[in-house]
Specification:
This protein is an alpha/beta fold and 159 residues long. The chain contains six helices and six strands. It has a six-stranded mixed sheet. The N and C termini lie far apart (55 Å). The relative contact order is 0.20. The model is unreliable at 1-17 (pLDDT under 50). GO terms for molecular function: antioxidant activity; oxidoreductase activity. This is TlpA family protein disulfide reductase. Residues 1-19 form the signal peptide. Residues 1-159 form the Thioredoxin domain.
Length: 159
């Protein structure tokens, strides 16, 4: 191995070791997680790599994740991209943007089979955000792009 190639490999190893992973998830697994009887407030954002408003609001969720890192708040970013694009598009997108929040990819062939189970009023449009606090029996939804102020206010209300 030539020295320049060896050096570039050594410099890449730490970056690859800490690289964000994206887990594929079925609706039932997500629903089970969100139904846990805990005092954790879940902030779940449904987005896609091809959705401009979704991408625009991602930094707000990342900021929320950082601001509430020591609180019982869990940010989940659920990609609605096609499961076949997980390795080709979603993982590189997440890594390029350095997302720190937990990222999942919804692996369901028919969104219409589970959308109304999550929220009867959800048309399927994204971005879509669900804020759940089971201890307080609170559930708030937004079928629109959220500003940082709207997101923070909604989470404060749920705590």
């Amino acid at each position: 191995m030539k020295l320049p190639k060896l050096l570039s490999t050594l410099f890449l190893l730490p970056a690859l070791a800490g690289a964000q992973t994206v887990q594929s998830v079925k609706y039932a697994d997500l629903a089970k997680r969100l139904a846990q009887p805990s005092d954790t407030t879940y902030v779940v954002n449904f987005w896609a790599t091809w959705c401009a408003p979704c991408i625009k609001e991602l930094p707000s969720f990342e900021q929320l994740n950082a601001d509430y890192a020591n609180k019982k708040v869990k940010v989940l970013l659920v990609s609605m991209d096609t499961p076949t694009l997980l390795d080709k598009k979603v993982v590189p997108f997440v890594q390029k943007r350095g997302l720190k929040s937990e990222v999942l990819l919804m692996n369901e062939p028919d969104p219409n089979a589970w959308l109304t189970k999550l929220d009867k009023k959800w048309s399927g449009a994204i971005p879509y955000t669900l804020i759940v606090n089971n201890k307080k029996n609170q559930r708030t939804t937004f079928e629109k792009e959220l500003t940082q102020a709207e997101l923070t206010a909604a989470v404060q209300k749920a705590l």
